[in-house]
Design goal:
With about 425 residues, this protein is α/β, with parallel strands linked by helices. It folds into 4 domains: about 120 residues, Rossmann fold, CATH 3.40.50.2300; about 140 residues, P-loop containing nucleotide triphosphate hydrolases (Rossmann fold, 3-Layer(aba) Sandwich), CATH 3.40.50.300; about 60 residues, Helicase, Ruva Protein, domain 3, CATH 1.10.8; about 70 residues, Orthogonal Bundle (Arc Repressor Mutant, subunit A). About 50% of the residues lie in helices and about 10% in strands. Strands 2-1-3-4-5 form a 5-stranded parallel beta sheet. Strands 7-8-9-6-10 form a 5-stranded parallel beta sheet, sandwiched between helices. A two-stranded parallel ribbon has the order 11-12.
């Protein structure tokens, strides 16, 4: 089955790759165009595009001017992304085929929703296979992920070996395949999952099949000493033109393994020319609501299902040692328990998540008393009679700020959850 295709017109390479990854997660292929000139050439080539993702700030032409210059038959439904704030002439843009406007920094959850909305009616009914949990590594827009996008762009533009590091479930395999698929190499690609029993013959076979292309070696730390020696030998004997580019993944710290003499130092330094580190889920918790929404959409695409603020709060308070895979499994469990309801409640979550939250709740009063005692010990040494007022104002301001973080800066959602007046909350925050 031929997959639908979209055109991504974006000059910022890291963002273009992130958009391509999000598009691929939706079962759609993409072509990249960094300039209006390149985009025009792609549209004139006869390739059929389901949609176009268009940046306004292109290096050679304003995005909307470029769109207006196209013949009507060459204008696919267009999503405009811009860092320049509000579009002044929205009505004129709509007439040009613009279906939505998305500001930078991009909310990838919102982007995928818009993309799905404009492509689904035109796509074939058979849905793509649901991706593995790790393939959603790039959903969201956490600050901790922005360097990752930049590093991926550097890796794609280079021909050097890459070492992809990250804890289990952070999306190492997906990152490796993203670099593999956008490599400057034109040869064949191979992926070999390494295990303790991986033989030199299996290794050599993969290297030969990918001659002139790219080989992904997953969990390279598991390679036995014989395999390590063979790989070093092959690297040293291989020619620059024919030997494949190597992309290795690992959840172990290879430097520590080298120091412990459990991994060859000469192989380590040959693999670690470029290094990409993926953060754990606990370091990008602002992406969790988008990830939850994505998993729900993947697991039950035919249901209009949401998650309650209470349930989301419990997910936000968990450390997620299993990263994306653990989150995926937790949502899958909740959907099984939920069985037809329209909202995932906290009671639908796995017991250990509810227990974790219960333990926090039980400890909270004692922790508050402890903090209050420390505060009073400090303030009672001071002169003045404003202790109660100062404490009340400080607690209120802190509470509003922390809740605002929980609700991703959305004052309306926070006010609704608290049954409070939005204007009052905003005024108190400004005065604090």
């Amino acid at each position: 089955m031929k997959l639908p295709r979209v055109l991504i017109v974006e000059d910022e390479h890291a963002l273009a790759l992130a958009l391509a990854a999000a598009v691929r997660q939706s079962g759609i292929e993409s072509d990249l165009a960094p300039t209006a000139t390149r985009a025009r050439s792609q549209l004139e080539s006869g390739t059929s595009y389901e949609a176009m993702i268009l940046d306004i700030g292109l290096p050679d032409q304003n995005g909307l001017e470029f769109l207006e210059s196209l013949p009507a038959e060459q204008r696919p439904p267009t999503i405009v992304i811009t860092a320049h704030g509000e579009i002044q002439n929205t009505i004129a843009a709509r007439k040009l085929g613009v279906v939505d406007f998305l500001p930078k920094p991009l909310d990838f959850d919102e982007f995928q929703d818009v993309l799905t909305r404009i492509t689904t009616p035109r796509r074939q009914k058979s849905a793509p296979e649901s991706p593995a949990p790790e393939t959603v590594a790039f959903v969201g827009a956490a600050l901790s992920m922005r360097p990752v996008f930049q590093q991926i762009a550097h890796c794609c533009a280079s021909d050097d070996p890459v070492l992809v590091r990250g804890a289990t479930g952070t999306g190492k395999s997906h990152a490796a395949r993203l670099i593999q698929g956008n490599s400057i190499r034109n040869g064949p690609s191979e992926t070999l999952v390494i295990g303790p029993t991986t033989s030199s013959e299996e290794l050599n076979s993969a290297l030969q099949r990918a001659a002139g292309g790219v080989v992904v070696l997953e969990e390279i730390a598991s390679l036995n000493p014989e395999g390590q020696a063979e790989l070093v030998s092959q690297i040293e004997a291989g020619t620059t033109e024919n030997f494949p580019r190597l992309i290795a993944t690992t959840h172990d710290d290879l430097r520590e393994l080298v120091e412990a003499e459990a991994f060859r130092s000469d192989l380590f330094y040959r693999l670690q020319v470029l290094e990409l580190r993926l953060p754990p889920l606990s370091d990008r918790m602002e992406d969790l609501p988008a990830l939850v929404s994505y998993f729900i959409g993947q697991l039950v695409p035919d249901r209009n299902l949401s998650i309650s603020e209470t349930a989301l709060g419990r997910l936000m308070s968990h450390d997620w040692p299993g990263n994306l895979r653990e989150l995926h499994n937790s949502i899958a469990f909740a959907l099984t328990v939920n069985s037809g309801a329209t909202t995932i409640e906290d009671t639908d979550l796995p017991e250990y998540l509810r227990k974790d939250h219960q333990e926090i709740d039980e400890k909270a009063p004692a922790l508050l008393v402890q903090a209050l005692d420390s505060w009073l010990d400090a303030r009672l040494q001071e002169e003045g009679e404003t202790i109660y007022r100062d404490l009340a104002e400080s607690l209120e301001a802190t509470l509003i700020r922390r809740l605002l973080e929980r609700y991703d800066g959305k004052m309306a959602r926070m006010a609704s959850a608290l049954h409070a007046n939005r204007t009052t909350l905003r005024r108190r925050l400004q005065n604090s």
